[in-house]
Amino acid sequence: MNPAATAALAAAQHGFLSPSGVEIAFVLVGLATLGAALVTVTTRQLVHAALWLVVALGGLAVEYLLLTAEFIAWVQVLIYVGSVVVLLLFGLMLTKAPIGRSPDADSGNRWAALTVAVAAAAALVWVVVDAFRTTWIDLDGPAAGSTEVTGASLFQNWVLPFEALSVLLLAALVGAIVLSRKAKAESSSPPVNARSVTKSSLGVTESSDREGAR
Amino acid sequence: MHLAYPAVLAALLFCTGLYGVLARRNAILVLMSVELMLNAVNLNLVAFDVWLSRAAEETLHSGQALTLFTIAIAAAEIGIGLAIVLAVYRARGTSDIDRLRDTAEGHETDTSETGPGTEKAEATA
Fold it and tell me: What is the domain range of residue A142?
């Protein structure tokens, strides 16, 4: 008997009405993750959105652990919770995001967006449940994503994409530095009669700041 | 574990991110929603990799390798995206994507609204 047939047989034995402990934990953490994601996209306080994003990403790390992919779980904690959210918070601070409730956090097309999202969710959930209703993941035995297994497969089969990715990261780093330094370099070496221009442009920036805050 | 649980959770998280991308007005909140969508895809990749590593004899662990690549590319994307948002904020004084419609067609009435931004851009140019 081939393994796929075995898995199908196991899925037939495990019904949805008698969940295992791992499944109960997965559903509970999944509900918390989904709730945090919903608060992230609906809250009117911009900083709170970033903090709820931490909860959602941390919940996903726990889901990876429940799926026995421990290396990816720790990478998720390190990179997403550790650095991406910190970058987002710095971005919010540097763009002078309003502290407290901002009434215009959502744009005018939120009902169209809600329609599209609900329709996509209904279609995707229907298709996915219809396709994988009887598929069973066997979580027993050695972990599928321990550090040893992941490292071995990464450096046996995926070496060239790995190296290409390091070059891509370097290019992204240089690009981010160039993008964020350009304006400063231009304004720090003004021509002779540029003082009045700079002053007026500063005033314009302040007025548009006020406009943005309003 | 049924494969339907992680697949349904990934679909719902993806649609949550989709709503955020379409409905949010601040560019950084749009970036957060993009992160949610990328994470939903990562969850799908990990779940299907764990399933296939049991079901198949020989596996490359392509799901987990691609998840790591996606995480790295998402980190690069968020760095570049925030640099662009900061550059736009410096030039225009706002990170509100509803106001950045200089290249939009059929919005001649908005020229008065984006007037100060273009003035500033000309002043620094």
Answer: 19-157
- Could you tell me if A39 and A137 lie in one domain? yes
**Are A67 and B47 inside 8 Å of each other by CB?**
yes
**Claim to verify: residue A96 and residue A134 sit in the same structural domain:** yes
Pair (A37, A122) in one structural domain:
yes
Same domain? For A84 and A188 the reply is no
Q: Read off the pLDDT of residues A61-77 as tens digits, 9 standing for 90 and up.
A: 999 999 999 999 999 99
ipTM surpassing 0.95, yes or no?
A: no
Residue A147 contacts B, CB cutoff 8 Å: no
Closest residue in A to B44 (Cα–Cα):
A64
Any idea which of A116-120, A147-151, B109-113 has the lowest mean pLDDT? B109-113
Out of A22, A57, A141, the one facing B39 most closely (by C-beta) is: A57
Query: What pTM did the predictor assign?
Result: 0.80
Interface mutation vs chain B, best among A67, A77, A162, most B CBs within 10 Å = A67
Number of domains forming the structure of chain A: 2
CA dist., res. A43 & res. A35, Å (int): 12
Q: What is the pLDDT averaged over residues B89-104?
A: 82
d(CA A185, CA A178): 10
Class of residue A120 by CB neighbours under 10 A (exposed 0-12, middle 13-18, buried 19+): middle
Report the residue of chain B nearest A124, measured CA to CA: B11
How confident is the model at residue A198, as a pLDDT? 44
The string of DSSP codes covering A172-187 is: HHHHHHHHHHHHHHHH
Question: Residues B113, B118, B119, B125: what is their CA dihedral angle, to the nearest 10 degrees?
Answer: 170
Residues A133 and A38 in one domain: yes
Please report the pLDDT score of residue A143 as a whole number: 78
Domain assignment present for A12: no
User: pLDDT tens, B19-44?
Assistant: 999 999 889 999 999 999 999 999 99
